[in-house]
Amino acid sequence: MNLLLLHPDQYLHGNRWRLNARQRNHVCTVLKLAEGQQCRAGLLAGSTGIATIHYIKNNEIEADFKPDSNSIQALPLSLLMALPRPKMLKRILIDATSLGIKRIVLINSWKVDKSYWQTPNLKADLLREKMILGLEQARDTHLPELILAPRFKPFVEDSLNDWAGTGQRILAHPGHYPALPCNLAEPVTLAVGPEGGWTDYEIDMLEQQGFACHSFGARILRVETALPALVGRLMRLP
Predict the structure, then answer these.
(1) Distance between CA 85 and CA 67 in Å, rounded?
(2) Which end of the chain is more exposed for a tag (fewer CB within 10 A), N or C?
């Protein structure tokens, strides 16, 4: 937790905020702060700044928050990703959020097991919890927009073009394709398939929406390995 991310329901009055249980534990056991000491904090969907511990008493901590800067710059990258295995979804969401990706679609694919869409990990509150962890990691305050698209064809045909907007549309896929571009600063939509890659039918449909296949080398990577590697190669990180 590199940022105490304060939520609206924690507000008391003036500049005063009450820390939640996880934040209290971090302040006491990791940061080991005493009254009057400070740490970095931020307001969800707002500014970052300094939190000063006002008092620690009866298992409660109140802090005064003073904003001093805006949240860090978002990455101009939108992510279209085939729904990963449930046990890896949490890690991937944390990583994507900490990298600064603010627009994410988790979409179905022929190689995505149908049971993945039934996992409790897709509950909105659990997805939000993981993205909050990503914000705290990167000292960011703005949650990504997350869309679930359990039907591939309707989303690609009816919604993808408007959602992707302007900018390059890149489909990461193994094969004899042009090398992935690097160090981009303009808007990009990146499509990352399931382990084993997109099917020929899915590639064709994405190409009809303006996506171009690019190779990232000969190695077949797990999705959780591929995503940060692709983003690090593709984008100029702020």
Answers:
(1) 39
(2) C
Q: What pLDDT is attached to residue 174? A: 81
The residue with tokens 């085939």 is: 82
What is the rounded radius of gyration, in angstroms, for the C-alpha atoms of the chain?
20
Q: pLDDT by residue (tens digit) across 112-150?
A: 999 999 999 899 999 999 999 999 999 999 999 999 999
What order of strands is seen across the sheet that includes strand 38-43?
Answer: 4-6, 38-43, 48-57, 60-69, 16-18, 11-13
Per-residue pLDDT of 2-19, as tens digits, reads 999 999 999 999 999 999
Nearest residue to 182 (alpha-carbon basis) of 220, 138, 135, 217: 217
The two structure tokens encoding residue 179: 């090398």
Question: Which residues, 6+ apart, have CB-to-CB distance to 160 below 8 Å?
Answer: 80, 206, 209
Global confidence as pTM = 0.93
3-state secondary structure the chain: CCCEEECHHHEEECCEEECCHHHHHHHHHHHCCCCCCEEEEEECCCCEEEEEEEEEECCEEEEEEEEEECCCCCEEEEEEEECCCHHHHHHHHHHHHHCCEEEEEEECCCCCCHHHHHCHHHCHHHHHHHHHHHHHHHCCCCCCEEEEECCHHHHHHHCHHHHHCCCEEEEECCCCCCECCCCECCCEEEEECCCCCCCHHHHHHHHHCCCEEEECCCCCCCHHHHHHHHHHHHECCC
